[in-house]
């Protein structure tokens, strides 16, 4: 925190905030860090749970088991045909009591709605990406699993799922970056993410355009850094 303090103080001067008694540097730092925490929490949780669900959907699609295959296909097509904002508002406005009962939440439901909506939505995209990776597995590896006497579950757990993830790694990372960028829409629920904290600081200081510009630059820099990491990991894979 002490290392970043001079940077925040220069940022305060850049944004031309005259009433520093109303919006102090400490409060600015807290709002921005809380916004970043919300953004990354949604991104990481949706990435983890979305991937687990996507693996199950991918298995249902590739095994072509009657019933499960149709369910997975309907799930994927439904979520891929809906705007994310509709899914988010749907969980917040239509199904809050269901989530309260299922998750045992008695207080604010907004964060839970965001986490569930993003996880379910991203799972549909991750599933199709993984299915492409599965289809890229050489037939020889599939035949080898049968020759070794692997069960279907063993084949998927030991060979197919790791190979599908490896084959899909660059596209999965790109989708993860899109997920990070999409978290900005949780502002419509009143959650203070990175964008929400920037707008709130702009309203408090009377410099909304400057703070929105700052949030834009922050999203760009973080996305570029994540893309560089994705490129390096993709090259190693």
Automatic annotation (TrEMBL):
<keyword id="KW-0472">Membrane</keyword>
<feature type="transmembrane region" description="Helical">
    <location>
        <begin position="171"/>
        <end position="191"/>
    </location>
</feature>
<dbReference type="InterPro" id="IPR043429">
    <property type="entry name" value="ArtM/GltK/GlnP/TcyL/YhdX-like"/>
</dbReference>
<comment type="similarity">
    <text>Belongs to the binding-protein-dependent transport system permease family. HisMQ subfamily.</text>
</comment>
<feature type="transmembrane region" description="Helical">
    <location>
        <begin position="36"/>
        <end position="60"/>
    </location>
</feature>
<feature type="transmembrane region" description="Helical">
    <location>
        <begin position="211"/>
        <end position="230"/>
    </location>
</feature>
<feature type="domain" description="ABC transmembrane type-1">
    <location>
        <begin position="32"/>
        <end position="230"/>
    </location>
</feature>
<dbReference type="InterPro" id="IPR035906">
    <property type="entry name" value="MetI-like_sf"/>
</dbReference>
<dbReference type="GO" id="GO:0006865">
    <property type="term" value="P:amino acid transport"/>
</dbReference>
<dbReference type="InterPro" id="IPR010065">
    <property type="entry name" value="AA_ABC_transptr_permease_3TM"/>
</dbReference>
<feature type="transmembrane region" description="Helical">
    <location>
        <begin position="81"/>
        <end position="103"/>
    </location>
</feature>
<dbReference type="Pfam" id="PF00528">
    <property type="entry name" value="BPD_transp_1"/>
</dbReference>
<dbReference type="GO" id="GO:0022857">
    <property type="term" value="F:transmembrane transporter activity"/>
</dbReference>
<protein>
    <submittedName>
        <fullName>ABC transporter permease subunit</fullName>
    </submittedName>
</protein>
<dbReference type="InterPro" id="IPR000515">
    <property type="entry name" value="MetI-like"/>
</dbReference>
<keyword id="KW-1003">Cell membrane</keyword>
<keyword id="KW-0813">Transport</keyword>
<dbReference type="GO" id="GO:0043190">
    <property type="term" value="C:ATP-binding cassette (ABC) transporter complex"/>
</dbReference>
<keyword id="KW-1133">Transmembrane helix</keyword>
<keyword id="KW-0812">Transmembrane</keyword>
